[in-house]
Design a protein that fits this description.
Shape of chain A: globular
Structural class of chain B: alpha+beta
Radius of gyration of chain A: 18 Å
Number of strands of chain B: 15
Largest sheet of chain B: 7 strands, mixed
Number of domains of chain B: 2
CATH architecture of the largest domain in chain A: 3-Layer(aba) Sandwich
Order of helices and strands of chain A: EEHEEEHEEHEHEEEHEEEHEH
Shape of chain B: globular
Strand order of the largest sheet of chain A: 10-9-8-7-11-12-15
CATH class of the largest domain in chain A: Alpha Beta
Oligomer: heterodimer
Number of domains of chain A: 2
Strand order of the largest sheet of chain B: 1-11-10-9-8-2-3
Largest sheet of chain A: 7 strands, mixed
Largest interface: A-B, 44 and 53 residues
Structural class of chain A: alpha/beta
Chain lengths: 286, 375
């Protein structure tokens, strides 16, 4: 079961490396993207990651949070992290400014199957707010557009005002061979997209199940339903991938918090092939 | 502890037992063993052989632990206390880093534990099995844990073979005891007049040279084998592992979880005394000036309300969820994760459960009804 990343692990995976905030971008009232640069040139030079992997991002004297890296792996000297302010640590991080220092440990976990998906059509299914883990994969594909086939990006929100990155969706829509499908559970005056749950969009999207990779991110129950419906459309679970979220204190499979069934989401995930995780997905109380 | 070591046996007269302590000290080891502290058995410093709890034995049953005075002059009549081997290698609180602010940034310095050579005398087979499991987790994953490594590498381990099983013991069914077969430098079998000493490593063999051991008649070794086999046979509890992990995964919706949840207090005792539970949290302790901060890992338990918390929601809000998490992880998921069960059959979680929940009974119910219903 050796699927560890090819990157050689540091001697002490608990050591936190200072990183300077180069840029701060307010994405939404409670969502910020930080561009970080590791201070130590030697560590910066050897840092490599894959889309979908995450760093433990540290605020001095406060704590760490697991945040996926959304920037491009070909430019690992600057690392973008989109952070949602939801608690004590992210609250402190969110108030930091360019020039301030955060800490980084990582990268950890398994990323999206960017290599295997080469040459295939891509179906992105996301639900809820932000969904940073999949943004890295989408941007990765657009920077290498010729390597991938048709792109269908499906995104569902609860209510129209939950739609973040409206401009980003518009920008994605402008790429060749790309369709963006938006839907909201609730209608709204300015909402001129679909109304309903994201899985309803499957009936409108054209895709060849034998030639498509699916990348999903969002509530587990949504991903469970989506995978079921996509299976009915002929997609096999080994071509569907999901990014999962759990509480992580260590990032390396030791602290025990991120378990889901037999897996440690921090090291077996956060991106997992659907056939491995399906029995556990969306199950309550685990 | 070299697995390729060829074991040898010798007899140590009871009056020569202090020589073992002398030899260890000469080699630079601090010695710890089971000692009586505040009416309980804990790992403590051994200065002389009188520090061992001579004339005491333990009675354990679910929710029950008592020490009883005896006329015995044996050193190792107490099987075990609440402490497993675990705190010696996976510290209940381990400072990982000290972070200090400098002009604009900060510096993180790892604080590795003091590698003082430590001899542990009186380790039982179940605890050696627990140690082997913790080695697998902390040393043989994608990252070897340097803190665990530092505490681990300094050890000299002297096992004591079990010849008496407690009411709570079920190591025989877990394949971990009562006889320790690996993972020690020396192993002792305590007899009335002497100890049978077995070497388990080159280091152990070197130390044994200082003990003036006598040859062991083959008949004696056979007698000791019989004593240990009798100890195994006397165990009344067991876990049938043949259907695991599948049977527990399939029992997710079993009504027995509701039943055990009504009894469980979610006190975390079982996870604290467990030789293999490894969950921990990380605590940040800044000073008042916000110029220096320490990060320490601290034992955590899947029975705490926080364990399954993720921004705004708790994934395991009920005690039922948490008990199921613990048992399913320990006896099923562990096998998928590490290729071995997470239970060594030491019985501590039965003894130290305030309401006496017996996981061997729980697992029986969870698996039996499944077979009955034919699912």
């Amino acid at each position: 079961m050796n699927m560890e990343s090819a990157i050689s692990p540091p001697m002490n995976p608990f050591v936190i490396h200072p990183a300077v905030i180069k840029e701060k971008r307010q994405e939404a009232p409670e969502i910020v993207t930080f561009r970080l640069q590791l201070e130590d040139p030697a560590i910066r030079k050897q840092f490599r990651f894959e889309p979908g992997q995450f760093n433990m991002v540290y605020a001095f004297g406060v704590g760490e949070v697991a945040i996926s890296i959304v920037s491009d792996p070909d430019h690992p000297r600057e690392l973008d992290h989109t952070i949602r302010i939801v608690g004590r640590t992210t609250d402190v991080i969110g108030r930091m400014q360019p020039g301030d220092r955060l800490g980084i440990r990582g990268p950890f976990g398994k990323g999206w199957p960017m290599e295997e998906a080469k040459g295939s059509d891509i179906l992105i299914v996301t639900g809820g707010l932000g969904c940073a883990p999949v943004v890295g994969a989408i941007e990765y594909i657009f920077r290498r557009r010729e390597n991938y086939g048709m792109m269908n990006i499906l995104h569902g929100v609860k209510a129209p005002h939950d739609l973040l990155y409206r401009e980003r969706f518009d920008a994605w829509r402008a790429h060749p061979r790309t369709h963006v499908w938006l839907t909201s559970d609730e209608p709204g005056k300015t909402w001129h997209y679909h109304v309903g749950v994201v899985t309803e969009l499957f009936d409108r999207v054209q895709f060849d199940p034998n030639h498509t990779f699916v990348m999903m991110c969002g509530p587990e129950i949504m991903m469970r339903v989506a995978s079921h419906l996509l299976s009915q459309r002929g997609l096999t679970p080994d071509r569907m991938y999901v990014s999962l979220e759990r509480h992580m204190a260590c990032g390396i499979g030791l602290c025990g918090h991120c378990q889901l069934g037999p897996y440690f989401i921090c090291k077996d995930g956060p991106v997992m092939r659907l056939d491995r995780i399906l029995p556990w997905l969306g199950k309550s109380g685990i | 502890m070299n697995p390729s070591h060829t074991a040898s046996w010798g007899i140590l007269n009871r009056r020569d037992f202090p020589r073992l302590l002398d030899a260890l000290r000469t080699q630079g080891y601090r010695i710890i063993g089971p000692t009586l502290q505040d009416g309980a058995v804990k790992w403590g410093d051994i200065a002389t052989v009188d520090d061992f709890p001579v004339g005491w034995r333990d009675h354990q049953s679910p929710g029950h632990y008592r020490l009883e005075r005896t006329e015995s002059f044996r050193y190792f009549d107490i099987v075990h206390g609440a402490e497993s081997f675990k705190p010696l290698t996976f510290a209940p609180r381990e400072t990982l880093l000290v972070l200090e602010r400098t002009h604009k940034t900060f510096v993180a310095t790892p604080i590795l534990p003091d590698p003082e050579p430590l001899a542990v005398l009186g380790v039982r087979a179940c605890d050696l099995a627990g140690l082997a499991i913790q080695d697998r987790i902390f040393l043989h994953g994608p990252y070897a844990d340097p803190y665990y490594r530092a505490r681990r590498d300094r050890l000299f381990i002297i096992a004591v073979q079990c010849t008496r099983a407690l009411d709570t013991c079920f190591c025989a069914s877990m394949g971990t005891g009562p006889q320790a077969t690996a993972g020690f430098d020396l192993a002792l079998i305590e007899g009335d007049a002497d100890f049978v000493v077995q070497t388990g490593s080159e280091e152990g063999a070197r130390l044994a040279q200082h003990l003036s051991l006598h040859p062991v008649p083959p008949e004696r070794l056979r007698q000791e084998e019989i004593r240990m086999a009798a100890c195994a046979a006397s165990q009344t509890r067991s876990i049938d592992q043949s259907a695991l992990p599948r049977a527990l995964y399939d029992a997710h919706d079993h009504e027995r979880w509701d039943d055990v949840a009504r009894r469980c207090l979610a006190c975390t005792n079982c996870t604290m005394v467990c030789p293999t539970c490894f969950c921990h949290g990380v605590e940040e302790q800044p000073d008042l000036m916000w110029t220096r901060s320490e990060r320490a890992r601290v034992w955590d338990s899947c029975f705490t309300p926080d364990h399954g918390y993720i921004h705004g929601k708790n994934l395991r809000p009920t005690i039922k969820d948490r008990y199921r998490m613990w048992l399913t992880h320990k006896l099923a998921a562990w096998i998928d994760q590490f290729g071995m069960s997470g239970c060594v059959g030491c019985g501590r979680c039965l003894t130290w459960c305030p309401v006496g929940i017996d996981l061997t009974e729980e697992i029986k119910e969870l698996i039996r009804s499944r077979q009955a219903s034919g699912s």
